[in-house]
Amino acid sequence: MKQSNDTLRLIYGLLVICLIMMVALSLNVWYRTGLGVTMIALLFLVVYLHRFASVERSKAQREEAELHHQQELLHIVHHLRHDWMNDVQIMYSYTQLQKYDKLHTAMDKINMKLQRESLLSKLGDPGIISFIYAYRVNRQAPFSLEVELEKEIQLRHVDPSPGLVGTQIKEWILCFGEAALQTNKEELNFLNLEMDVEEGELLLDFIYRGDYEKAKLQQILEQKRSRWKETRIEPAEFDDHEAAVTVRLPYRNK
Questions:
Q1: Closest residue by Cα to residue 118 from 148, 89, 90
Q2: CA pair distance 243, 208, nearest whole angstrom
Q3: Is the pTM of this model over 0.70?
Q4: CA–CA distance, 73 with 79 (Å, rounded to integer)
Q5: Which of residues 139 and 177 earns the better pLDDT score?
Q6: I need a surface site. Which of 84, 148, 170, 235 has the fewest CB within 10 A?
Q7: Average per-residue pLDDT in the chain?
Q8: Rounded Cα gap, residues 158 and 163, in angstroms
Q9: Bond before 126 cis per omega within 30 degrees
Q10: Are 175 and 220 in contact (CB under 8 A)?
Q11: Separation between Cα atoms, residue 130 and residue 76, nearest integer Å
Q12: DSSP collapsed to 3 states, the chain
C-alpha cells in the first residue's frame, strides 16, 4: 500500500511537470502532442492505481473481518468447553463421593441444557445463532442472556421476510443493552428470551431483570412500534427492576 502511494505521488509530480511545460514553454505542435499523450497515459495510470488500491483495501478489510470472526469463534468454543468441563467435573465429584441422587439431578440438568442448545442451533439463521452465542460469552455485556425454546422453530417460516426476525431479535437484545445500567450488586442484570409458536404467530417474549433506564427503554419501544409496522408489539410492562416486552410475528407452518 505504501509503495502504491509513493507511485501515485511520482505520477502526480510528472503530471504537474508536463502541465507546466505545456503552459510555460513555447513548444511546437509535436512536442505538445507528445506531452498531451503522456499526460493522458499518466491519468489512465492514476485511475488504474486508485482502482488497484481500492481492491487491496477491500481485500485487507475482508481479511481483517475474517480474522475477527475466527477469533470470536475460538472465544465461543473456549467458553462452551469451559462450561462443559465444569459440568463434567460436578458429575465426577458426585461419583467420587457416591452422591448418586445428586448425580441424577445433575444429569437431568445437562440433558435439558443439551436440548436447549440443540434447539438453538436449529433456528435456521446462522447470523442470529452466532450473535446469541457471542453475546452470551461477552464479559463486557451489560447483562447475562438466556434463550429458551420448548420446541424446534425455523425462522425461515416467519413472514414477511425470513431475515426480519433475526434482525429484530438482535436489535431487541441491543436495545435492552442500551437501557441497562451497570450494577455493582452481586445479582447481575439478566435478560431472558423465550421463543414459541402460538396460533400461527412466532412469540418473542423478552423479560429483563435488573437496573435499567425506564424512560429510555420506553422511548426505544415507541421507535420500534413506528418502524416495524408488520410486527405486533404488545403493551409492555415496566417496573423498577423488571421489564417485559412481547413481540409477535406471522409464522407459517411447514
A1: 148
A2: 5
A3: no
A4: 10
A5: 177
A6: 235
A7: 81
A8: 8
A9: no
A10: yes
A11: 9
A12: CHHHHHHHHHHHHHHHHHHHHHHHCCCCHHHHHHHHHHHHHHHHHHHHHHHHHHHHHHHHHHHHHHHHHHHHHHHHHHHHHHHHHHHHHHHHHHHHCCCHHHHHHHHHHHHHHHHHHHHHHCCCCHHHHHHHHHHHCCCCCCCEEEEEECCCCCHHHECCCHHHHHHHHHHHHHHHHHHECCCCCCCCCEEEEEEEEECCEEEEEEEEECCECHHHHHHHHHHHHHHCCCCEECCCEECCCEEEEEEEEEECCC
Name the one residue in this structure whose C-alpha cell is 413506528.
226
Quick one: which of 116, 173, 118, 190 has its CA closest to 148?
116
Pairing state between β 242-250 and 237-238: antiparallel
> Judging by beta carbons within 10 Å of its beta carbon (0-12, 13-18, 19+), is residue 191 exposed, middle or buried?
buried
Q: What pLDDT, in 10s, does the model give residues 201-239?
A: 888 999 999 889 989 988 888 888 888 777 888 888 888
What per-residue confidence (pLDDT) applies to 85? 85
pLDDT tens-digit series, residues 53-70 = 777 778 777 777 777 766
Residue whose cell numbers read 503552459: 23
Using alpha carbons, select from 199, 177, 91, 76 the residue that is nearest to residue 126: 76
Q: For residues 133 and 117, is the Cβ–Cβ distance under 8 A? A: no
